[in-house]
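Example record

One chain of 579 residues, shown exactly as stored in the release files.
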Amino acid sequence: MKKARDLHLLLKTIRRSSTTTTPKMDPSDRYSFSPILRWNPEVENYFIKAYGADHFSIISKALTRPSSYSCVRVNTLKSTSDAVIEKLLEIIKEKGFDGDCHGKEGSGPNENVGSPLEETLKNGPIVKCQIPGLEYVLFVKGTGPHMIDYGYVPGAPPKEVIVGRKCAEAVLRGAQVFVPGVMACSAHVEKGDTVAVSAAIEQRNPNGGWAFDPYYFERNGFYIGQGTATMSRAGLFRASEGIAVDMDNRVFRLPSFYDVLEGEIFLQNLPSIVTAHALDPQKGERILDMCAAPGGKTTAIAILMKDEGELVALDRSHNKVQDIQKLAAEMSLTCITTYKLDVLKAIRQRNEADDINTNQSSNSLRFHEEKASSSTAEGFNLDKTCEDNVSNAIENGGAYVSKADIRKAKRRMRNGPGRNQCVGGRVENSKGFYPDSFDRVLLDAPCSALGLRPRLFAGVETIDSLKKHATYQRRMFDQAVKLVRPGGVIVYSTCTINPGENEALVRYALDTYKFLSLASQNPRIGGPGLVGSFESPNGRTEEWLRPGEEEFVQRFDPSSSLDTIGFFIAKFSVGSKDV
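Predicted structure tokens for this chain:
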């Protein structure tokens, strides 16, 4: 009922937009893509003090647009860059990607005229990265922003589909408009009609919060393209899934590689690939990826290790752990071990006696289960075989196995392993890991994600919520410090432009753990970190980097010539913990 009422209100606003009471305006202003990113006022003031007003304005504009290229990582264990380029060029040719997107190309911060990246992209639609060590990374050139003729006629606006912000951001990255993302639709839209697609962005409400309220003028500059309706208006609101609008004329156009060359390539942001290199994983090491989902950095690390060693990947979500497993299997990587675990509970205290008993009991039970299974297949009595195997296991030095465990083993043998015990479907829980048990630890921390792009709204985050992110990250970093061995390495990364989650974390780490020191990174293509501090109105001071430390970290500015997402990487060397 609530959804129906909301749709009714949205449709009223569309009808209102076409009435004669609407003031005259230049259609090029309305039917365009020129969004202004809205921030919480306190957060905006904080960022202005960190970056300066002019620089932050440029960053905000860059965040509203996707990068001018897609970054593809080649699985060098299964293919080569040259082979993948050949295949992708053929796919692009088949899909008819011509780069002109039926419109004139406008100006935007992601054109990067004269930058090294722009010069590289001039060499063709798909080129190898020229950064030493990253030759297996491919750049696929996109186009945009484009000026689209939506067919506006005074008094007769084009038929229109309004989508939610999340849907609009996905469309700007190359997705289609799916039914769940549609919020409203003009009257009399039929299957096959050409429709303009606009985004409904949160607006301030009288209570001081944010809410969707897509009035006519509030969609000015939020038109993301043109497409063909795949169903009528009535069918659109009856359906629960499927493509609603086939986007054939986009403001930004990037080739889609969904379900393309699975196992051979992985679509990944350039700073994320650099993060795996900063960790510098070596063959035979034991490495921990603390917040591993969806598995992009995990698989990148495994490939750099030549799939030799042990790479432990954690996430607290069952489904996300399965996603990591599927990606690892798709890329034929065997060194990755996944666990479901909250990283705040990652430390396991040593208790040698319990370890011996637990391992013996587990091994004993597994021994008699396997033997009993084999005996059953040969026609022996299941119950007697199971009990005999347990007796033999105990006689041979194994720990005592209870009758309850024996009954469970019998049931498993009769009924089969079950869905969660099958290959590819099982998610192991972990009780944690002993201190100093990993050579290298990657903490790609959950964050405010204020560096991701395209982003059409940023007003949700407040100063308090940013502080909560930072507090959570420090607790996770504390776990990382305990898990890494002396002489090891910790790499910390985020996808946010917030210095409170980046430079302030580095300051906390260096001041709290005197045995940590910043280490150089290779390759180094990001910019320097922020030096100084921020004093809030309540007198609280947030310390960032000190002079000389800024060149050890990598800060990726979305408005820079690299045209990446906003990202941050810090690498720490771990000295003797006895200091």
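Notes: Residues 17 and 216 are 5 Å apart (CA to CA).
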